[in-house]
Fold:
Amino acid sequence: MRVAASPDLLRWARERDGVMAADELAGRFPKLADWEAGTAQPTLNQIEAFARAVHVPVGYLFLRTPPEEPVPIPDFRTFEGRAVHRPSPNLLDMIYACQERQSWYGEFSLASRIPEAEFVGATSLDQPPDDVASDMAARLGFDLAARATCRTWEEALRLFIGQAEKLGVLVMVSGIVLSNTHRALDPREFRGFALADRRAPLVFINGADTKSGQMFTLAHELAHLWLGVSALSDASGAPLNGYRREEVWCNAVAAELLVPLAAFRAALRPDEPLDEAMPRLARQFKVSTLVVLRRLRDAGAVVKGAFDEAWPRERERLRALAEAAGSEGGNFYRTTLSRVGKRFARALVESTLEGQTLYRDAFRMLGVAKTETFNVIGREVGAIP
Structure:
């Protein structure tokens, strides 16, 4: 049975996805050019397969005009008030998935009488970033010395995530949409987002970014939670002159939390070349070399001209390293658990085992398909003996 899908909407759906190469899509759907030209019509099965391939609800393809798809949370990836670009379906679907998880956990928290997170909305943009960073460090139990002794970036990141989750933050790290390895998240589009809620504060980190970049993203998004404002960010550690006030402020808070200026100045060596100081200090503080470069500028150790020259060069170097690292790997169960966070996973498994949540819903929110995987995750978080 042929269906009269809109040629304009077919073209919009193809361009909207922006992930699958045009020749690959044409290879799967040889008549796509004819569909878009209106000289041929797809079958119902073909249009459903096309909708799945480009990650769009099939009903959209029968609308008169393309639907508006605004980011459902404040988008701070802006310059002088202008949005960066249209959000990808991968980004939108990841935000929707986290909003569902947050909504579920908020109800669980209320029913379980878990105290609200008092730090959410505890400050404002009028507060000095250094003071807020000190408050965050105290509440988190943030120990700079402990982080410095971590042997690897992964160990340091796990320590930081553990501190945030212990405080009550749901921290989720993934480089793909749910468990679909064919839907990679692009760190050039976004690095993370925060969903502010006193019952279920949530931070999502783009796991396709470097580990050191993820450290800064977590600190930046935590600053958004302290403001009590949900936000989509592309935080990189830059001073962000000309950007929205919230992003400049959150970057300043994150930089002071991760690399306190007093401790940083004490770690500087006189006349040390920049290409030697950056990797040494990055290893010591377990942050990106971009954050180190920013703190060198804050400390007056690098003049503006040298900073402006070094920043884009280092940014491109790190981007190339992140792309060369490839997709997520390692222990399957640990990776699956990190995508939803231990705090959320434990609550969801316990609720499911108690019969308060359907297994179907638990599997969807965890991004798993097998009972065996569910049980292993339950044992990993201590919910199953």
Remarks:
- The chain has 18 helices and eight strands.
- The chain has three domains: 7-62, 78-259, 332-380.
- The first strand starts at residue 78 and ends at 79.
- Strands lie at 78-79, 82-83, 170-174, 176-177, 180-184, 192-195, 202-206, 231-233.
